[in-house]
Amino acid sequence: xxxxxxxxxxRKYYREESTVIHPPVDIERFTPHKKNxxxxxxxxxxSKYKRIDLAVELFNRIGKRLVIIGQGPxxxxxxxxAANNIDxxxxxxxxxxxxxxxxxxxxxxxxxxxxxxxxxxxxACGKPVLGYRKGGxxxxxxxxxxxxxxxxxTVESMEAGLTQLLxxxxxxxHEGIAKHAQQFSEKAFRKAMKEVIEGV
Length: 200
Hints:
Blueprint lengths: L3 H11 L25 E4 L8 H11 L3 E4 L5 H7 L4 E5 L3 H10 L2 E4 L7 H8 L4 E4 L4 H4 L6 E4 L4 H14 L5 H8 L4 H14 L1
Helix pairs in contact: 2-7, 5-8
């Protein structure tokens, strides 16, 4: 299983036990940065279940700059919703996306994923994450240390989480956040897979 979230699902539906091995994240290509260019970032497929609409509604309300990288079937609707402080960049290469990760103020992850690679990539850059308290993010993020959670899939709950993030912004340790991300590296994945295979 790629997370405890999936492990629980396997137990529930198949009544089988499984071993959790987190997916490999290419941590090494990122450089932690303390400084930022003031924008908040989303890197995601633009599908309804990703709940990017929550972030668009929130940033419409607060007027802070939000940059969204990605494409998908919900793109048109999201663009029609968005105010001028929200930039849709569409598809970007890994190299360009890397620069946006490294220079953002914080990463926004409004949906639920089985694991969630993009938040780990943001943490590898030393950036705090604001995310929904569901799914794999609850295993990869430490509240108050590498970012903040919001508890309900509502704009109000998300705004409360963002407020906490901004309160703690100066106390986040960007090097500590990046170090935390190392446990989800390709090296860690290979080690875990090797142990499972040798065990069999």
